[in-house]
Design brief:
Elements: E1 9-10, E2 13-14, H1 24-29, H2 31-47, H3 62-72, E3 76-80, E4 88-92, H4 96-101
Antiparallel strand pairs: 1-2, 3-4
Length: about 100
């Protein structure tokens, strides 16, 4: 028997999509931002941690999700790896969720 955790949709999309992001670099290497946004929405929706998501987690739109990604971008740092010469990997530094949670 297959079990799945409850998740969320944004329109027809199962969670967010980094192809929606507004900047080229975030579309190419915004996987940490997408993970942070999706995680915050998930915790807000299913665990009552509504302070993690600046928009209504149960009804977040694609436009709001993109705005959310722009809000978390400053909490991330780009890293250029030698094994991947031209791609920037956006990596969350230690404690990023704590830093996001304690913002303001």
């Amino acid at each position: 028997m297959r079990e799945e955790l409850p998740y969320f949709y944004i329109g027809d999309s199962y969670g967010g999509n980094q192809d929606w992001f507004s900047s080229f670099m975030m579309r190419k290497g915004g996987c940490a931002a997408e993970t942070l946004c999706d995680g915050c929405i998930y915790f807000a929706k299913y665990f009552g941690r509504v302070h993690l998501c600046p928009f209504p987690a149960g009804t977040i739109t694609q436009k709001e999700y993109v705005r959310f990604s722009e809000m978390v971008e400053p909490f991330l740092k780009p890293e250029c790896r030698e094994s991947i010469h031209w791609i920037f990997i956006w990596r969350a530094y230690p404690g990023i969720l704590n830093k996001w949670e304690k913002r303001n």
